[in-house]
């Protein structure tokens, strides 16, 4: 059983299109995240949701819209795709409401290529 | 602002050599957590260790060991008797707890480790 699963794993699309990446976790965590890894392997947080509530939005263009229908799912919709959006997008989850900071569990990543 | 520096972009070693990956961090928080993640060629991110700022004991797990030194803001990672399967990008990360729940990981730029026969 995959703890954090993302679909699709690969996505190739044309500039200007709209695409979505879905993420689901079966760990019972209440916090989920989207991270972007660029071509130089740099990982940067984009969004975080805790119990369906947005708690981090890291100056991401508003073409990116996360949606969390419930605490086990966090989807990422991207409008009007640009070449610079090409990257690997990682979904992650962690136990949020604890006294200590817990590790993040990452999905396998979704590689988006914009042509 | 939080910052993590991994000055070594790429390291190449021969199998069975020991190798140390450096990590230096900056934070104004008194309570924080440090992490190491491994990203093998297959691309997934694998959690290796979590360490809180109040625990400066070194940790050993098999061939892996970690040296946390608060005085120098460093959290270095050593692989003893490296193996080809250790070839990966290794990320150091610093965490900041959020009032709304969860935490925000700030990653270093990663160190690509290549272990050759």
Q: How many whole angstroms does the radius of gyration of chain A measure?
A: 14 Å
Low-confidence spans of chain B: pLDDT under 50, at least 5 residues?
A: none
From the spread of the alpha carbons, the general shape of chain B counts as globular
Overall pLDDT metric of chain A: 91
Oligomer: heterodimer
Query: What is the CA-CA span between the terminal residues of chain B?
Result: 41 Å
β-strand percent of chain A reads over 45%
Number of strands of chain A: 11
Order of helices and strands of chain B: EEEEEEEEEEEE
Note the total helix count of chain B.
0
Sketch the major β-sheet of chain A.
7 strands, mixed
The N- and C-terminal alpha carbons of chain A lie at a distance of 34 Å
Describe the global form of chain A: globular
Total helices of chain A: the number is 0
Helix/strand-derived class of chain B?
Answer: mainly beta
Instruction: Estimate percent helicity of chain B.
Output: under 10%
Number of strands of chain B: 12
Jot down its keywords.
heterodimer, A: mainly beta, 7-stranded mixed beta sheet, 4-stranded antiparallel beta sheet, B: 4-stranded antiparallel beta sheet, 12 strands
Q: What does this protein look like?
A:
The complex is a heterodimer of chains A (115) and B (117). With 115 residues, chain A is an all-beta fold. In chain A, 0% of the residues lie in helices and 55% in strands. Chain A is built from no helices and 11 strands. In chain A, the strands form 2 sheets. In chain A, strands 2, 4, 5, 6, 9, 10 and 11 form a 7-stranded mixed sheet that branches. In chain A, a hairpin with a 2-residue loop joins β5 (43-50) and β6. Chain A is globular, with a radius of gyration of 14 Å. The model of chain A has no long low-confidence stretch (mean pLDDT 91). Chain B is globular, with a radius of gyration of 14 Å. Helix content of chain B is 0%, strand content 55%. With 117 residues, chain B is an all-beta fold. In chain B, β5 (33-39) and β6 form a beta hairpin. Chain B has strands spanning 3-5, 10-14, 19-21, 24-26, 33-39, 46-52, 59-61, 64-69, 74-79, 88-97, 103-107, 111-116. In chain B, the strands form 3 sheets. In chain B, strands 2, 5, 6, 10, 11 and 12 form a 6-stranded mixed sheet that branches. Chain B has a 4-stranded antiparallel sheet with strand order 3-9-8-7, with no helix packed on it. The mean pLDDT of chain B is 93. Chain A binds chain B through residues 30-31, 33, 40-45, 48, 50-51, 53, 55-56, 88, 90, 92, 94, 96-97, 100-109, 111, and chain B through 32-33, 35, 37, 39, 43-45, 47, 50, 52, 89, 91, 95, 97-98, 100-107, 109-110, 112.
